[in-house]
């Protein structure tokens, strides 16, 4: 039997329902082919793919946890909170996510206006063309359009030169509050996890405050092994998990076969001394 820390769990990825390019069914097939035995689809601010993902996982005999990645504004920056094991039919979280998605269309129009000013036209329609779910038009869809237009060679270059603070196409946005996001997840019976902490540009003191506040309001986990972390960061955030008493999560953050560096289920295992987030479900 697979021991708890060597289980091939991938608890973070995206489908066409948000900003991934594969369907929930194709992701399930890919997870299976890569040996994943516990999987969660965590689309941004959206639960529309959950039933399809669960059904596909069940047909392939992969254990499944319902998931979501919620966009949150905390101390003036965007952070992401993953919810795992939620009831995807819970009206509280469904309504909260609907409100969180609401401003995306208007933001996208403003992004396109800015890009127009630097000579890039048709970005709104161009991005919308890539959005499998028009309620969830995101910077990723703009990034794909800018690559298609030859403005940048890949999406990585886009996120260096466009769509980020102080660059064309950046529009600040107010997402959900941290307290609301965690409350929705808990009310829906799930556990809340801080996604890719290594990506945030906070000071050490602000990170400390984030961990403490998140814990105070009932947050349980942080991602340690993620496609967004370097091997050094696996160590750093492993220590943070121990220091603050968080359960550790593992997920590729897979979006697309060509764009994503890390495929579903091919990350290093969680270090043995950490308690995996999936222990909360046994
Ligand atoms: P949005 O929710 O519209 O602000 O879009 C956020 C999405 O953009 C993230 O979920 C990633 O998929 C993508 N993204 C953000 N920053 C980067 C980056 N540096 N490299 C690649 N993708 C990124
Ligand atoms: Mn994304
Ligand atoms: Mn994220
Ligand atoms: Mn993600």
Percent in helix: 25-40%
> What small molecules are bound in this structure?
adenosine monophosphate, manganese (II) ion
> Helix count, per DSSP?
10
Helix vs. strand class: alpha/beta
Brief summary of the model shown:
GO terms for molecular function: 5'-3' DNA exonuclease activity; 5'-3' RNA exonuclease activity. The chain contains 10 helices and 8 strands. It has helices at residues 24-33, 50-59, 91-101, 104-117, 123-130, 139-148, 155-161, 178-187, 204-216, 231-244, and strands spanning 9-10, 38-39, 63-64, 67-74, 77-84, 191-194, 221-226, 247-251.
Key phrases:
three-stranded parallel β-sheet; 282 residues; five-stranded mixed β-sheet; alpha/beta; 8 strands; binds adenosine monophosphate; single chain; globular; 10 helices; binds manganese (II) ion
Structure description:
This protein is an alpha/beta fold. The chain is built from 10 helices and 8 strands. The strands form 2 sheets. It has a 5-stranded mixed β-sheet. A 3-stranded parallel β-sheet has the order 1-2-3, covered by helices on one side. Strand 2 (38-39), helix 2 (50-59) and strand 3 form a beta-alpha-beta unit. Helix 1 (24-33) packs parallel to helix 2 (50-59) and helix 5 (123-130) packs across helix 6 (139-148). Residues 9-74 form the Polymerase/histidinol phosphatase N-terminal domain.
